[in-house]
Amino acid sequence: MTPAPPRGPEHLTLALPKGRILADAISLLSRAGLPLALPEKSRALRHEFPGVTLLELRNQDVPVYVDLGVADVGIVGKDVLIESGRAVYEPVDLRFAACHLSLIREVGATGPIGRVATKYPRSARAYLAARGIPAEVVKLSGNIELAALTGLADAVVDLVQTGSTLRANHLEEVDVLYHSSARLVVNRAALKLRRARLRPLIERLRELTAEEATGG
Ligand SMILES: Nc1ncnc2c1ncn2[C@@H]1O[C@H](COP(=O)(O)OP(=O)(O)OP(=O)(O)O)[C@@H](O)[C@H]1O
Ligand SMILES: O=P(O)(O)OC[C@H]1O[C@H](OP(=O)(O)OP(=O)(O)O)[C@H](O)[C@@H]1O
């Protein structure tokens, strides 16, 4: 693939995660005035729109691209942002992809927690350390609830939205670590260099999310 050409300060490079956030992110950014459309299904990972380059990434890579300045701006879940440990500027809570990260066990489980399985080891370790629980944390990649069902772990730390995954697997939430939703993230140097494009975008997104919160 050809390297990206040098971009003037009027150009934006945008990092979005493929997966459940992509369509809502593109819809919201379009309403905020960016000339975007959902990319056609293809193997292409970089998409050009007038004045905007869209990079299609894994969730965990969005904070990395924004923090290191390859992308000027991105959208990612607060859960992924916390887990990344990167201090990127996070000016707008976009409110969609709302869910919470919880400690989950089999219904009625009361024994000690010796091992916790999760996709969120940083968050899980911080939670356990704050409560003085000396549990081992095992990082898994998906279908985390299975670890509690199979006895791989005494508890799991995973996202809950409707609770239907918990109900379908005879699991229950024991505690909530934190609430998450999609966030706008901005590279701090880009905020200065591309101020003329980023400031109005941030303002418009603040207005749109406030309107949606009040039903406007
Ligand atoms: N059930 C859910 N309901 C609402 N929001 C969710 C739900 N599950 C995840 N999210 C939010 O959407 C984001 C993206 O979720 P998605 O399912 O696309 O990721 P994934 O495919 O599990 O991630 P990965 O890139 O690690 O494979 C999560 O980081 C979280 O912020
Ligand atoms: O409370 P619910 O509405 O059931 O949503 C929660 C489920 O959604 C997410 O899983 P996802 O579908 O992204 O699969 P994954 O476990 O492979 O990440 C999350 O990890 C839970 O399993």
TrEMBL record:
Cite a single Pfam family from the UniProt record: HisG
Question: Which PROSITE patterns does its entry note?
Answer: ATP_P_PHORIBOSYLTR (PS01316)
| Record-listed E.C. numbers | 2.4.2.17
| Assigned keywords, A-Z | Amino-acid biosynthesis, ATP-binding, Cytoplasm, Glycosyltransferase, Histidine biosynthesis, Nucleotide-binding, Transferase
Report which reactions are catalysed by this protein: 1-(5-phospho-beta-D-ribosyl)-ATP + diphosphate = 5-phospho-alpha-D-ribose 1-diphosphate + ATP
Subunit and interaction comment: Heteromultimer composed of HisG and HisZ subunits.
Q: What does this protein do?
A: Catalyzes the condensation of ATP and 5-phosphoribose 1-diphosphate to form N'-(5'-phosphoribosyl)-ATP (PR-ATP). Has a crucial role in the pathway because the rate of histidine biosynthesis seems to be controlled primarily by regulation of HisG enzymatic activity.
Quoted from the entry, the domain comment is: Lacks the C-terminal regulatory region which is replaced by HisZ.
The protein, known as: ATP phosphoribosyltransferase
Tell me the organism: Deinococcus carri
Phylogenetic lineage: Bacteria, Thermotogati, Deinococcota, Deinococci, Deinococcales
